[in-house]
Write the structure tokens for this entry.
Amino acid sequence: MNIKLELIDELRKRANVNYEDAKNALEKCNGDIVEALIYLEKQDKTKGEDFSGKEFADGVKKAIDKGNKTKLLIKKDNHVVAALPITLIVLAVILFHHIPIVPILILVIVAMHYGYKFKFHKENDDKTTEKIDLNKETY
């Protein structure tokens, strides 16, 4: 029986098998892709999705890189007192999650009362920057 390459490719995608197994299954099942899938499952030749964790690792790397490029600037009198990467802030929240948030909020409010300003500063890949001012009142 002459099996078309498109049918073999379709079975390979669905069952995650090699060309030889896909072709043999289709030949045994007279070109019926559903029967070939059932045949391959009964033979335990179908494979699950390959997950090496590479996609997850790439996503984590991308998130860390983005977090390192975005900083929380703490300024007083137009001088930067601290520039904290968002990655560091997230890590601190994870590590010190048991500390109540209320004292931290009070500290931020007192700092703003004494003239400290808080801004997010994001460095883009083309070295341009975006700033988000947390001190403006918007209603």
Residues 65 and 87 are 8 Å apart (CA to CA). Helices lie at 5-15, 19-28, 33-42, 54-69, 86-95, 101-113. The two ends are 73 Å apart (CA to CA).
